[in-house]
Amino acid sequence: MRSIARKQEVPNQGATVRERLRVMDDSAVVTAFLGGEERAFSELVERYQTRLLNFIYRTIGDREKAEDLVQEVFIRVYRHLHRFDRSKKFSTWAYTIASNLAKNELRNRSRNPLVLMQTVQKNWQDDDRPLQFEDTTSRPDDMYRKRHLREIVEESVAKLPEHHRHVFVLRELEGKSYEEIAEITDCNLGTVKSRLNRARNSFAEIVAPYME
Amino acid sequence: MDCREFQENHFAFIDDTLSGIELVGMQRHIAECESCAKHDTTVRRSLMLFRSLPRIEPSAEFSERLNARLRELRESETSSAFHHSGKFAAAVAIASVVMLGYIGSSLRDVDTPRDIVFPPVVASVPEPEFVPLIAPGPALVTSAAAGLPIWTAALYAERQPLHFATADLQLASSH
Hints:
- The complex is a heterodimer of chains A (212) and B (175).
- Chain A has 212 residues and is mainly alpha-helical.
- Chain A is 81% helix and 0% strand.
- Chain A has helices at residues 2-23, 26-34, 39-60, 63-80, 90-111, 113-128, 140-159, 162-172, 178-185, 189-211.
- The chains are: A mainly alpha (212), B mainly alpha (175).
- The interface between A and B is medium-sized, with 35 and 29 residues.
């Protein structure tokens, strides 16, 4: 009877720990993990998986590869969390790892034209899939226009130079401050501002004809 | 404010990080310059489009794959730690065996009866007693070779500073 009661208590305890972790800030969750609470790592994954996935996806333009890289980010975080300087923000550290992996991926691709070609082909195949993000009750011509515009926007981001795109995505998609972007991309503040300004202007120039 | 200045500060204008004076300057410039006003609108609209792009979600297998990789990582870390500790344990075991062997052999040596071996007897002649040499010293020999009697030479050398002192006194009193 007592063992049954104990068994019933365990999941409740687990739920309480998860709830407690959910309300903690990143720094406290990291501390909990380093203190031996393995569930704290799942909390970090839950908090950052979608954000990192979108950041990497918008930077490299390949969804499947982006998922692989996000996995790699978490593996690295898991292995090196004990070395993380806790006076800094965890999110900045995680984004720095993601940013470096995305840069390496783009560098590898530029060296290997076959990989680049495969990515382009895969993206074309992706384009043939039915849209999931649009309102199916819209009129067909509206849906077409929206889809076309989305493609244009995605292509326009991809057209930006790599270092401009990095800063642009971190600012516009992730809402990072200039200082955080400087730390993540290992650039000075002035460079971040000038790259952001140029990226915005270039992006607007590419998209402008389709907005009229 | 001119158009160049407007372009340079445009990113901060969009992010709303300008100071009050700068903000008023930018707003005034937009009101006056049609080209910059158009540029501002285009940038803002394009950013709105980008920000409204649908966010993608991790696939259904994402968590499963990640957990499997983390499990592998934990296992490899544990096995490597075990491997290292195994190596250490083996080294300790070998060292212990060697040590025990050495102790055992030295104990066996203690137990075995051995012939008593005395140190060899060394006979030595006692050292001769010191006998002072009664012979003339080197100064005496030198003086004798020069034909000078020793005591006069020694006296002369002893008196020399006195002679010099009296000579100085005499000279001083004569003046």
